[in-house]
Write a structure and sequence with these properties.
The protein has six helices and two strands. The chain is mostly helical. Strands 1-2 form a two-stranded antiparallel sheet. A hairpin with a 3-residue loop joins β1 and β2. α5 runs antiparallel to α6. The longest helix is centred in the C-terminal third of the chain and has 35 residues.
Length: about 200
């Protein structure tokens, strides 16, 4: 009791906090979830096709993988441009107060690394294809320029490991990002995930 009024239940306070949480806009949400689906799909196809023998199916999957990579690159550029003119909502004060300093640093650092890898992974893949002398025709319709000279030794020794290593790093960060979001949802029970979740 406080001033003759009953104390508000904890679950009511949590619901109020969730309702008032600053949220991303619809465009930012759409780009976020579309990129998430494409990254998971592209990484899964990449793993699967690497285990296949040379065949028409493998060639088809390689084309799909390249198309997905260029689409991820394009959407990442659009997302970055959108972010420059539509600043992300700040973390709710209650979340900032509850998070240790190292978690805030990890939160910001993970986002920066994710954005960096959104660009570097497909660019390494594009460069690898160029160095092999295999041009990319986006969706079989739009021929893309080769920005690396044909050099198969360089492709296999340098660009392929860079593409593979950065892709696995991106996958690990995506899992870390998703795990942290689920922790905030089900353990911390705060409104962090609500910022990027449609109502």
């Amino acid at each position: 009791m406080l001033c003759g009024m009953p104390a508000e239940p904890l679950n009511s306070l949590a619901a109020h906090d969730h309702a008032d949480a600053p949220r991303y806009g619809a465009v930012a949400m759409a780009l976020h979830w579309l990129l998430a689906l494409l990254i998971v799909a592209s990484f899964s196809v990449g793993l699967y096709m690497a285990s296949l023998p040379f065949s028409p199916m493998r060639l088809r999957l390689i084309s799909w993988h390249k198309w997905a990579g260029i689409t991820i690159l394009t959407l990442s550029a659009l997302r970055l441009l959108w972010r420059q003119s539509h600043r992300p909502p700040p973390l709710a004060a209650s979340i900032v107060r509850a998070m240790p300093g190292w978690q805030l640093v990890a939160h910001r650092g993970t986002h920066l690394l994710l954005y960096l890898l959104f660009f570097t992974v497909p660019l390494f893949g594009w460069a690898y294809s160029s160095a092999l002398g295999i041009p990319i025709v986006w969706f079989g319709l739009v021929p893309l320029p080769d920005f690396v000279a044909v050099d198969k030794d360089f492709a296999e020794a340098v660009l392929k490991p860079l593409h593979k290593g950065s892709a696995f790093t991106l996958a690990a960060l995506v899992l870390l990002h998703a795990g942290a979001a689920l922790k905030h949802r089900f353990i911390d029970r705060d409104a962090l995930l609500d910022r990027m979740w449609p109502k």
